[in-house]
Amino acid sequence: MLYRTAGQFKTSYVADQALFTVKQDAFLLGIILLLGWVVFPLTASEFTFQTLLIPILIYALAAMGLNILTGFAGQLSLGTGAFMGVGAYACYKMVTLFPWMNPIIAILLSGVFSAGIGVAFGVPSLRIKGFYLAIATLAAQFFLVWLFEKWSWLYNYNASGAIQVPNLEMFGVFVSGPQAASVTEYYIVLFVVTLLTLLCINLTRGNLGRTWKATRDMDIAAELIGINLMKSKLTAFAVSSYVVGVAGALYVFMWKGAAEPNVFDIPLSFQVLFIAIIGGLGSIMGNYLGAILIVGLPVVLNVVAGTQVFQMSALGAAVLVALVAAVAFLGWVARNGWTIGAVAGFAVLTLIYGYAQTQGFRIDSALIEHINVMIIGALIIFFLIIEPHGLNQLWRLIREKLIIWPFPH
Amino acid sequence: MLNDIFIAPFADMISAPDFLMQVLWEGLVSGILYALIALGFVLIFRSSRIFNFAQGIMVVFAALTLVGLFAMGIPAWISVGLTLGVMFVLAVAIERVVLRPLVGQPDIILFMATIGITLFLIGFGETIFGGENKVMITEELGIPTGDTVLEPFNGLLILQHLDITVVVVATLLVLGLLAFLNYTQMGRAIRALGDDHQAALSVGISLQTIWVLVWFIAGIIALVTGIAWGARAGVSFALEVIAYKALPVLMLGGLESITGAIVGGLMIGILEKLFEIYWGQPLLGGNTETWFAFVLALVVLLFRPQGLFGERIIERV
Lengths: 409, 317
Prior knowledge:
The complex is a heterodimer. Chain A is mainly α. Chain A folds into 2 domains: 21-264, ABC transporter involved in vitamin B12 uptake, BtuC (Orthogonal Bundle), CATH 1.10.3470; 302-404, no CATH class. Chain A has helices at 13-16, 23-43, 46-72, 80-97, 103-122, 130-150, 182-205, 207-217, 219-224, 229-256, 266-279, 285-306, 310-333, 338-358, 365-386, 390-404, and strands at 163-164, 168-170, 173-176, 258-259. In chain A, strand 2 and strand 3 form a beta hairpin. Chain B has a single domain (2-303), classed as ABC transporter involved in vitamin B12 uptake, BtuC, CATH 1.10.3470. Helix content of chain B is 72%, strand content 3%. Chain B has 12 helices and 2 strands.
């Protein structure tokens, strides 16, 4: 009903291949943009900015970069964290060497450095394929993080070995560093992320995107129909590393404020990979959905587990039950019988957890941390089983059903 | 500079052969452990095409379970038995809950699922046994702890009895495994499945049984590695770094090759130690062991994309 396409006629091929073939999609995007640009900044608290809004955008951007390489061009990479690090260190060197530089320009330029390094580590992809390539990208991961630690020029020889974001000014307003307001940082992140998302959408829809997809689906066949594999793979590495590098610069400059080399270690790479895969490989929107889930879930779990008050834990249990209900609905839409058992199990666990909370069963914070890790691991497996193609695919199924609703076919 | 890179290290090696032997011995011991982890990995990859990232965590998990059970007051050897039981249950659970619903999915999805298993096991292990560093129950298991001092070339060579035990046990385990794979019905079934899934299924080999079996064998290997490594470095999740070390071993040796895993493991163990001592510490500020193996494997792979012992890659459109 909401998505009825009756009356929306396409009279040309151009219209048929437009970005929004269904009017409601454009309307929905308009609402999301309104939320992001106006409603959230006006209503969000400091906590929401720092634990949800800013990290979700940054992680979504990093996942988008990885998704271009892995989802669109089919080259599995496990070195995302290190490439984020290259972006962050490049940005740090630029703003400390050239303090007059506009911070946004510095952030956007820092991606160029990670793109260069990305291409260098992408060269083996011309000969190495599949999991061998994935391990090869780990060489980049471990080598670069080692370099961040040993090459003291990178962190201006300071004693701590960490990079510390200075106060940066733009038009008389602090945009980065300890004195910057969260809302300014949020707007800068949002601006950069919107810009790069637009870029990625258009790149993946255009000529370059099609050569990537052909390379992904079967590189030998792609080569036979005249696609230059070297160009295709290396541009994928370059664009991907650029986006990832910018995400890394934002990660340190707009969110963390300081970073040690081990921040960019392998867990970060995996976190970004989870987001890309749970969101859906080969999609742009999926990165946002994945980031919301992976970043948001621990926050929800922490808030739930961190409150010992009776009402709050009841509220937490309600939130979890709502989450389970949402997952169950998605599973129902995906028509996977296996889901029911998993959801039931999850619901029972939630109830036990909620009950333990109401009984004043105190859980220390280390234990909560461990339980969070466990739950996230279980959820990854769970989501892979109910929909291996990710949240984006779930949304597509829902949308298809809404378009033909109330008819089944 | 050139002197530092090409001449000085070799001069050092020749002038102190006893130290060189010490370095080689230590490289050999860690190489054998890398080979063991890689072996569990290869078995799973051959029989199910699953790139099992969780192998390293299974090492930690097995070691944690063993220490945790012992801490509950269960005698050491019974704890070992119980840990094997836990690893078996784990194998069955992974096959039922994770692999069976995901059968036929793209490789990367299964790979992600094993990362999910990794996270789950980390969280689960820490929830039950706590996250703090633990001491492996070396003496209770009857593993000798002293050392033997040899004096080759009028120098000094210290062999930890623990390391000798590790080498002997690992060698026996590898030989046993090879015998199992070559001379028993089950072992042949595993190899058949590795060669051709469809053909293996059509002669009546049960995929499910083999998968459980393979994951259980990987679990046994994980326990042995866990005891050995835990005795050297303590038991905590920091041990998972050795899991990453198994990956370049696999690249070097080839994902399907058992020989490759063993040879690659020994090569990487010895070469990275040599590089660290003679080139890394004097020239690069040390701690090169984190990446040396990967870069070595990368360079080898540029010339042999399927690894040293991997099956030749034939691509068709």
